[in-house]
Amino acid sequence: VGDSSVLDCHLKNGVTMVTWKFSPLIGAPCTLGYRPDTNTTNRTTCSDNMNWKSRPDLDASLEIWHVGIAQEGNYTCEVVSVDGSFHKEYYLTVLVPPRPSLYCDDHGSPVCEAAVGKPPARVWWVLESNSTPEKEGHDNGTVTVLSRFTARSTNVTNTTCMVFHPTGNWSQSIAC
């Protein structure tokens, strides 16, 4: 999320048409087209943050700025030339880093939370715990993972929560 992404599409000799088709997980499909014979481009229901990387007659790559969850899905570049039709397919997966936090609840128990991550984060306690993480899905495809520390021993005063995610890991200790 927030980064830019470039999807390559190589031109062939004698190009008659180049088309990018995007099928998002949610929302309307998008099409970008280019015809060299008329030097025209066409776009249908594409968001403003995606377009040709440069001039489509020189480079048919697609650039997506400030990638968001709405840009997740299938992308296909089709190049039609005198030699035939050529396809290049991509599936863009958008990773959303969770917002980790560690705090003490009203009962004095440690609570570790990895809010609105995609995919869901894995939450672990350094000391053994009887807790089972709870997951709450959100409409935008992100997931919040919450784990309450339940000690197997009553003499635990300090514990550490660790959050693992493809975008990075995090750990913090707390005494409640």
Task: Give a nutshell description of this structure.
The chain folds into two domains: 5-92, Immunoglobulins (Immunoglobulin-like, Sandwich); 99-174, Immunoglobulins (Immunoglobulin-like), CATH 2.60.40.10.
In words, what does this structure look like?
By secondary structure, the protein is mainly β. The chain folds into two domains: 5-92, Sandwich (Immunoglobulin-like); 99-174, Immunoglobulins (Immunoglobulin-like). It is built from no helices and 15 strands. The protein has strands at residues 5-7, 15-24, 30-35, 40-44, 50-52, 62-64, 73-81, 84-92, 99-104, 110-117, 122-125, 134-137, 143-148, 159-164, 170-174. The strands form four sheets. It has a five-stranded antiparallel beta sheet with strand order 4-3-2-7-8, with no helix packed on it. A four-stranded antiparallel beta sheet has the order 9-10-13-12, with no helix packed on it. The radius of gyration is 23 Å and the shape is rod-shaped. The model has no long low-confidence stretch (mean pLDDT 92). It is a single-pass membrane protein.
